[in-house]
Amino acid sequence: MKKPLIATLDLTALDRTTPAPTQDPIAKERTVTAEVLGRPLHIPVKDIDEDPDQPRQEFDAASMEELEQSVRIHGVKTPISIRPHPTEQKRWILNFGARRLRASRAVGKTTIPAFIDRSHTDYQQVIENLQREDLKPRELAMFIKKKMDEGEKQAHIAELLGVNRSMVTNHLALIDPPTCIEEIYTSGKCSSAKTLYDLRNLHKEFPKEVERWCSGDQEITRATVAALSGKLRGAPKSTTSTAKSQQESKKPTLGPPATMPSLIVTFQDRSGTINLQQAPQQPNHLVINFADGTTAEVPARNCQIEQIIFP
User: Fold this and answer.
1) Is the domain of 161 the same as that of 223?
2) What strands lie across the sheet with 304-309, from one edge to the other?
3) In terms of residue numbers, what domain contains 39?
4) Number of folded domains that form the chain
5) Is residue 276 a part of any domain in this protein?
6) Cα separation of 227 and 271, whole Å?
7) Residue 30 in 3-state DSSP?
8) 15 lies in some domain
9) Which of 44, 110, 49, 123 is nearest to 83 (CA)?
10) CA 68 to chain CA mean position, Å
11) Low pLDDT (below 70) residues in the chain
């Protein structure tokens, strides 16, 4: 009688268990990227390109030297913002942080901390610089002009930037201004878009007088431009006859207008000069010659005196 066949299993392999590989924490960190964890990446400086359409183009040399010294000693403490390059793999486009990136390059840093923002837009780029007060008026003006050339309306641009529409209008005065106003801006005598807007409007009416005034050494502020506006525009000329004018001139007056001080006031963020030659039609009101060329009668209690300029 044949013995039954008994199947046997070789279990010796169970004694040769291989220990599970130790998990590499660094590899895991690479899998769960710093982008997901909300930590800044450390990106090679050589792999980051500045945005050719970046609105900020003016960099103060002295300020850059100070930043370079800080980066040399302490490194970059605030990460920059980047997005993937649209056509080149393993390269990045800078969203904002141009000063930090340039300073890192200047002092020989090989990497820089950065966050990835794939949804970044040029409007966000401008807003970031506006909030940090890093964007110069001319740079904002060029951005506004670019958007208008693309067909966008001033009101829409103002809405997306989160600013008043008048701010957009004021900055457009810095686009191809008259030579005298260009020199004022580039020399640093005045960088206020509102002031230069008022001065440019005044230049349209009195080009020679404004050019002569701009070449002087006086301080250029909203108040002084408003005073110039009041002086040039003045009160309307009389159309009466010479004889009547001579008769009127014999009456006692407070003195010729040229000897009277100019009272510069602000009303609802508009600067102007009180017209002392014209009586208001309503009680407790003032007639204001605004720097933008308009004249209006406004409540005196809503006016704030900025400056008194004596001739």
Assistant:
1) no
2) 295-299, 285-290, 270-274, 262-267, 304-309
3) 34-120
4) 3
5) yes
6) 9
7) helix
8) no
9) 49
10) 23
11) 1-38, 54-59, 120-122, 124-125, 127-135, 235-260, 307, 310-311
- pLDDT given for residue 22 in this prediction: 52
- For residues 112 and 43, give the distance between their C-alpha atoms in angstroms, rounded to a whole number: 5
Residue 98 forms part of a structural domain? yes
C-alpha 75 chain-centroid distance:
27
283, HSE (Cβ side, Cα atoms, 13 Å)? 0
pLDDT digits (tens, 9 = 90+) for 153-187: 988 888 887 778 888 888 888 888 999 999 998 88
Residues 187, 98 within the same domain: no
Which CATH number do you get for residue 158?
A: 1.10.10.730
Coil, helix or strand for 263? strand
Residue written as token pair 């006086």: 218
How remote is the C-alpha of 7 from its chain's centroid? 85
Instruction: Say yes or no: 45 and 61 in one domain.
Output: yes
190 and 171 in a common domain: no
User: In the block, which residue shows the tokens 């502020």?
Assistant: 221
Report residue 108 as tokens: 């020989």
